[in-house]
Design a protein that fits this description.
The structure is a single chain. The protein is α/β, with parallel strands linked by helices. The chain has helices at residues 12-25, 42-49, 73-96, 107-112, 118-125, 145-150, and strands at residues 2-6, 30-34, 54-58, 101-105, 135-140, 153-156. The chain has a six-stranded parallel β-sheet.
Length: 176
């Protein structure tokens, strides 16, 4: 199945990692690809410490990608890493490692921002849609309509109230 968690509320990546933990609890092999984020989040730190059948690929950089400014090193590095993962690494993993769950965290936002080619992503995601033996989760604040239409499950996470509005930004353990 292809699952999508998107929207402006907090909890999209949390839902995806929760799904990964559930799958790992069932003994599944899992692949997690993190687009547009760096390696320092708590969930990635934990996964590195545990000896679980999970492969993690961090495809973002430490530098923020400014929307509309794609000439610098950070967007170029994000684009190259994302394309190489989707075109070469993931197909190889599907053949050799054979994960039952693939989490594509922030892929929706990477497509929305134009850092990843939408056609390439749709080709990849169609391999999961409607299947019951292998699954993918896509997250992102913005997930293009074509991806949502291809999905078997779409959950929109919307903000009702958020501590960001009080000035608390990127709280360790809650946000990263």
């Amino acid at each position: 199945m292809l699952l999508v968690f998107y929207g402006k509320g907090k909890g999209k990546s949390t839902a995806a990692y929760g799904t990964a933990i559930r799958a790992l609890g069932r003994g599944w092999r899992v692949v997690i690809a993190v687009f547009m984020k760096s390696k320092g989040s708590g969930e990635l730190l934990l996964l590195r410490r545990l000896k679980l059948p999970v492969r993690v690929y961090v495809l973002g950089t430490e530098r923020f990608v400014v929307p509309g400014d794609y000439g610098g090193d950070a967007p170029s590095e994000n684009m190259v890493k994302a394309y190489a993962f989707l075109k070469y690494v993931l197909p190889s993993l599907m053949r050799s490692y054979r994960p039952r769950l693939v989490v594509l965290d922030e892929l929706g936002l990477a497509v929305h921002m134009g850092l990843v080619d939408e056609r390439t992503v749709i080709q990849v995601l169609r391999r999961f849609s409607g299947r019951v033996d292998v699954h993918a989760v896509v997250t992102g604040r913005y997930v293009p309509r074509i991806i949502r239409e291809e999905a078997d499950l779409v959950s929109e996470v919307r903000e009702v109230k958020h501590y960001f509005r009080k000035g608390y930004v990127n709280l360790e353990g809650l946000d990263y």
